Amino acid sequence: MEPGDSTEETPLPLELSRFQVSEEYGFLLPDPLTELPVPYGPWMEIAHDLPQLIASRQLRSRVHQMPQLSTGHLRGREELHLAHLVLSFITMGYIWQEGEEGTVKVLPRNLAIPFWEVSQALGLPPILSHADFVLANWRRKNPNGNLDTIVSLPGGESLRGFILVTFLVEKAAVPGIKAIVQVVSAILQQEEETLLKALQVLAEAIGDMSKALRRMHDYVDPAVFYTVIRIFLSGWKDNPAMPQGLVYEGVSEETMAFSGGSAAQSTVLHAFDELLGIRHREQSTAFLHRMRDYMPPPHRAFVEAIGRAPSLKQHLLSSGSEQLRAAFNQCVSALAELRSYHITVVTKYITIAAAKAKAGRAEPGDRAGPSVGKPLSALETKGTGGSHIFSFLKSVRDTTREGVISA
């Protein structure tokens, strides 16, 4: 295995390639591998059959029969990312196969040890995160570019839609990510015209992210998301269903606690916040900073490098340019709007779906999983990352709005 790249102090101006950020795909892994080398066939066989194994309650017994494989044959970042993706999906299925009341306290060594080793090599935690679920979990179905996931969990077409719409949101952010580099460079070079254009590109990219997020309604059934998909994104930190955390057998005798997958683990909004000088309240900031531990280290380093760059806000205040201030405020407004729309989506997919599930009015849809017909209780008011979801989302939306520069 190869260790993750060093994230030492980075000189300015910024260069995307230094942070494993793609010019074409941003934080998404460009053209991820879809198969591991032959020795890892036992992992891939289980991974490709996960929804059926979970629905038939056979996954745990299959994992117990899995051979103990060495991670020593994995080469390069792409193989490591696919191994992490596969092992994280198997782990989530193993933990939640029987629903929130049938969890286990120990992850068996033949899964825990390789998962831990691959996680250490990538600098990621040994749990399913946004980096697995979305960034590394896409492939082209055919030459026309139609997309599909590499591995799946229960939830059928709704799960596939949830992953791929989130992929489209990440892809829509790419011009904005490139604009960050241009903004920092323009400040350093005192190029006001370049700065103005970069801010306009950034505002447009954030608007395009909101448009992409709207497609969630076309592809994801709220009942399926709430009663089936959500549990498999849940972690074992701040989760009453697993208050003690999880023992990774063969790694440590002590329990460990990790947060589940969350949109707060996406590097995109952290990068935009850092550039625009958005300052969230203490509790929200603490949660967001903890979520950075779930990002690939080079992406986290990119956010930190933006934070070390000259302040965009201070530059605009000292420049006195009305045009630049208006362009900046357009970026902030677009970001606040995106966060507002995220609240609308979460209301539909959690609050309203929870009420319907409780009332027994949830439609069957394409559901198949442990919690069919039985709404979650442990995470009723929390996000899969463990935050109190509505107070958190409203707080970060409000503090984003406060980021505008008044005349």
From TrEMBL:
One annotated GO molecular function: metal ion binding
Protein's UniProt keywords contain Lipid metabolism: no
UniProt cross-references to Pfam families, sorted A to Z: IDO (PF01231)
Family under the similarity heading: Belongs to the indoleamine 2,3-dioxygenase family.
Keywords: Dioxygenase, Heme, Immunity, Iron, Metal-binding, Oxidoreductase, Tryptophan catabolism
Protein name: I23O2 dioxygenase
Gene Ontology biological process terms, A to Z: 'de novo' NAD+ biosynthetic process from L-tryptophan; immune system process; L-tryptophan catabolic process to kynurenine
Listed GO CC annotations: cytoplasm
Species per Swiss-Prot/TrEMBL record: Nycticryphes semicollaris
